[in-house]
Amino acid sequence: MKKKFTACLLISQLLVISNFAAARTAIQSGNGGGSFMTFTFRVPCEDCSTQNSATGNTYIVDVPSGNTPSLAKSPSLQDLNIQMTLKNERLVYSFSFQPGTSPRAVWRGGGTVLQIFFVPIGTVAAVRTPEVSPESPASPVPPSTVLVNPAGNGSLAATVSEAMVVSPPKSIAPPVPAQTPTTSFTPINRDQNTTAVAAVDMSVPESPAFTVLGVTPQTVTRPTSPRAFATSLLNGVDTNGNFQSGLALDFVPYLLLAGDDLTLKKYQTQAVARFLARTQFSFGTTKGASEDDKSLRLALGLHMTLWDRGDPRMDEELMTCLGTGLKLPPLPTQLECDLPRNPTDEDRAAFAQCQATSQARTDERTRQIQEVTEFNNNVSTTCREEAKKRNWNNSSWIIGAAPSWISEDGQTKHMHWNGGGFWTSLAYGFEGVPAMENRSQLIFHLRYRNREQVPDPDSTGAFLTQDSFFFGTRFRHGSPNFNGSFEYTWLRSRELGLKFDNSSRLSLGFERRIAGDTWFNLSLGGETGRADGRNNGFVLTSFKWAFSDRKPVQQ
């Protein structure tokens, strides 16, 4: 009886060893051996784990952030997309694998090398996570071990007799040296990052308040998504031949109120949030400085962007650039410096050396963080400059409206109603047209203005009431930092109680970025075809600047 028991035990051990040898041979010989990746650690990784995700067909490698591995892939896996995320001082690598295969993790080099092979299902017996090196002695499967079946769905299909678990060798890790910053290839987290990370220094749009007051450098308003906060200063001779100076403040209430609560994901997926973030309010005032016009005008403007193909917050190329070109800052590698209760001279020397090493690591990490910050700022600037070139002249559509008030003698106590205006502008950016899609834009503009008080050319200090209708087109050409435009506007106006008067207006305009978010606009032109023969010329200039809410990408 004893001989039979011994024989059964020997046979069972031989079966287990043969199963294990077959699995190792299959991995090393060619059953999937041509597709593998290798993680190489500086010191034995005692706290690493590998597992299949709950969703299936995704494999996860979880390592301590203080033991960041180098990664190599076989030629057949060069196109495999690996994502890396930082969670609670641990680095999590994840990648998808083809259905019909099952990843197999093998530890080598005393726990410093992890190789993952992609083996067709059914080639080798199931193993648990984390799997370890066949070079180490086999250990029994503990009662809490979770086995992963060949299909990779995380069920408990394998049995103890079908699995082998090998523990990585235990060793005392030496002090971990300071980390080298690594380049991130993780897609930008749209739930964590706000719309401010996609802020691009696009040209500041015309103020809605100035539009209804008729003192924008260009009559044809350029449609675009507004900036969170902007301001404009205006000087020049208006279309009535009178000198004007003015100030306008423009802001987007939703962007200012929502703040960090408006994430990229909400902006890109929620139409209502996107509409509110593209709705601009404006306050503007102008003051005449001539004997013919001493009036003070005031307007409140509303500008809504219905459609914008040039919105950088919707630019997927910008998102990809910001998410894949930045560096992760080094993580702290702390040393615990303990001094015994009754220290010897050797203990004190070792303690001092430990403190000096710890301080040196802190200084080195501070220096590396500064380098990483400068590097990421340069990368982000490059990404945004490329986005500006792609988007500055793209197609868009806006509508606007504004009420206005006037004081003919320039005193605020005499302010009264001065009518209102409604307008819309549609821009075409020549998308897909060679030689024009990055350099040109064509804009169409419609505007109606009612009961506007204008100076009476026949009576100094007197004003007339008129209604007017504009239809204009404007062609822009150039670059995002400097461009010129030609504008034609057909104007149909009528003084109260008189006939309509049709005229035309021609102008040339120039826009130049001076520095940062400051822009200079110049427009000069004149009217032709007026029935009364008073075809005035005009020259208007404005300085516009915006306050950027740009924020760095959070990795």
Describe this structure in words.
It contains 7 helices and 24 strands. It has 2 domains: 173 residues, no CATH class; 281 residues, monomeric porin ompg (Porin), CATH 2.40.160. With 555 residues, the chain is an alpha+beta fold. It is 20% helix and 37% strand. About 14% of the residues have low confidence. The longest helix has 47 residues. A 12-stranded antiparallel β-barrel has the order 12-13-14-15-17-18-19-20-21-22-23-24.
Overall CATH class of the largest domain: Mainly Beta
Rg from Cα: 35 Å
Uncertain runs? 12-33, 122-176
Mean pLDDT: 77
CATH superfamily of the largest domain: monomeric porin ompg
The counted number of beta strands is 24
The largest sheet is:
12 strands, antiparallel, barrel
Helix content: 10-25%
Tell me the domain tally: 2
**Sequence of strands across the biggest β-sheet:** 12-13-14-15-17-18-19-20-21-22-23-24
What is the CATH-assigned architecture of the largest domain?
Beta Barrel
Count up the helices. 7
In short:
The chain contains seven helices and 24 strands. With 555 residues, the protein is of the alpha+beta class. Strand 14 (279-288) and strand 15 (296-308) form a beta hairpin.
From the structure above, extract its key features:
555 residues; Porin; 7 helices; elongated
Layout of strands and helices, then pairs:
Blueprint: H1 2-29, E1 36-40, E2 49-52, E3 58-64, E4 70-73, E5 83-87, E6 90-96, E7 101-108, E8 113-120, E9 138-139, E10 165-166, E11 182-183, H2 208-213, E12 229-237, E13 243-251, H3 253-258, H4 264-269, H5 271-277, E14 279-288, E15 296-308, H6 316-324, E16 327-328, H7 345-391, E17 396-407, E18 416-428, E19 440-455, E20 463-478, E21 482-495, E22 500-515, E23 518-528, E24 537-546
Antiparallel strand pairs: 1-4, 1-8, 2-3, 3-6, 5-6, 7-8, 9-10, 11-16, 12-13, 12-24, 13-14, 14-15, 15-17, 17-18, 18-19, 19-20, 20-21, 21-22, 22-23, 23-24
